[in-house]
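Troubleshooting log. The previous run stalled partway through. Resubmitting the same two chains, unchanged.
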Amino acid sequence: MTFFADFCIPFIVGATVMFIIIAAKYISWLRDLPRSDIKLIVKGAVSPRLFTAAWEVVRESLLHCRIFRVNPLLGYMHMSLAFGWFLLIAVGWIETVAYLGLKWVPLQGHVFFKYFAALNDFGTHKPTFDFVMDLLLLVVLSGVTLAWLKRLRSRAMGMKRATKHITFDRIALSALWFIFPLRLLAESVTCAIYGGGGFLTGGIGHLLAEGINADILHTIYEPLWWAYSSALGIFFLTMPFSRYMHIFTEIPLIFLRHFHLKPETKEKSYDNFEVEACSRCGICIDPCQLQAQLGINDVQSVYFLRDRRYNMLQQKIANNCLMCGRCEAICPVGINLNTLRQNSRTSMRNIPNENRYKYLRNLDRSEGDGRVGYFAGCMTLLTPNTLTAMQQIFEAAREDVWWADKSGGVCCGRPLKLSGESDSAQKMIDYNKELFYKHRITTLVTSCPICLRVFREEYKLEGIEVLHHSEYILRLLRQGRLQVGYSAESTFTYHDPCELGRGSGIYDEPRAVIENIGKLLEPAHTRKDALCCGSSLANTAIDDRQQLTIARGVAEELDATAAQTIVTACPLCKKAIARGAKNTVKDLSEIVAANIK
Amino acid sequence: MINFGFSINKPRVIDLNRNNLNKSKEVIKEMPELQACIGCGSCTATCTAGNLTEFNFRKVHTLVRRGEYQGAYEEMNKCMLCGKCRLVCPRGINTRGVVMLIKRKLGDF
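Second attempt completed without errors. Output:
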């Protein structure tokens, strides 16, 4: 039995090179992992997480469940290509086993089985396989058709904007688009000459045999198989360097993620898995407010990851991001886009400097000696109404408070970290941490979500419970230490701050507090889908006018709820929204303080 | 000399013809809005770092624009990048961007 023909060469070369390159990439990435990550992998590999990860691989790498949630048609397109192709390979393998029994057949024997089946005598014909294989090919072809349609009209698939691809991706993309139509043609012509085939290849083969001269069919027979093999070969050769690297990379990524590996403040080898798992599907483009409201279209996560992958990332691209997390929330691959962007900035701007912030030594401007500490944060100091309101709340609840920074304190460090100066930010973190321990507080309340996030994620405050003021106020209300008056006449709408909602997962507490005071009306974008106020500290690139445009867009939605008061739980959001809103904007603590009974 | 309990700064002249204005021009080119500064000093008044130490953002960026770069990078390193100055600036200047830009032009990244 022969399983070789000249036309197989492009396929064999492509597939071999692809597997070698991918193996080399994975091995070098795994080799460079820090020891702590390797320990996590070893621990995870012998735990039940292995199975939950495998299940996620089926759900996401093959079925693409998360994309179905974005848009069903878009989900079907991705599923038909991925799962359809996978089944074509799997069923094709079963088909060869059914014909030849369990014996070794070279790769091209499986892939070009129809060709070799016509060449060799494999025994009785099995029409069931013909039918299944044709059906699967039809499914994949429907996906390819949708992919074409998406290029022409992405809106039909729920995407206002599709990714602008680089030339190299276009080559890979074209090769992929040609693979399946060429396979259909090659198999159909084979059926036309040798008979057999299911409803699709057999049917077309039948028509071809009737309509076209047998000589012509014999002439185009080999070239068609050559073309099919070449399309596969080109696709495989370009794959490890193009967006299609995601096909394989998402699988190890899912396993590593289930083993609790994650990107950190500084770049590390694991990041490669996340960066190359990006398929550049472009789902992150539409939610980006820089795109939607400012028309900036080269900074979105898809372009950021692409630039970072090819080592052509510029500071102006890396810095131009609100890090609001709207793209991260929708990313079907679940890439930690914000952390990756932050650690890219760190690679660009971090300069360890021992002398920096020496002036923090022996500094202590705190007041009071309660076990409950209150950290206003820079932004709250700039919105004194919030500070006064918190003071009234503490007094009403008879809480003994230690005021960390009422008369000037040190920044929490998050703004500096977001801008990439991580080592210097650590100095502020260390300073504040020491201060908290020195005053032996057991609870730390802050009214700034930016501070909250860094307290929870970076400070590692053992023995100190960190609370956002929305959580703290709700606790006081539930414990009965604070009573507020309810009025059904008062209507409020609530803006989810990015750092509090998507950043810290606090959605319900501020809403519960508001519902103790009056009626809550939700804006169009809310909770996980909430918009960013535009003043995010993470963005150092956009100017004031652009910030205002974003703020107006958000304020418009909040005004549209017709609520009397716009409530938010972040001093920065409050300032930003107030610039664009018609209604009054208040911090959560202000409406609580105003309604204390 | 009699000690009066105070001193007077040495007379100082900034000679724009003699100063090398290349870096200054680069800063202005990348952040033209800095020219809209009216020198009101709100940034400095609200500054978190300025509240704790001798750091004067208005002074530093003004000197940089005049071509006086000596010590500017070290001064800018006192900034915590908290962003209060940006919120109070009546001209809406991207002050955090200015800090980062000046550091990039005068520092080593």
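Takeaways: Chain B touches chain A at residues 33, 46, 48, 51-53, 77-78, 80-84, 87-89, 92-94, 96-97, 100, 104, 107-109 (CB under 8 Å). The longest helix of chain B spans residues 95-106.
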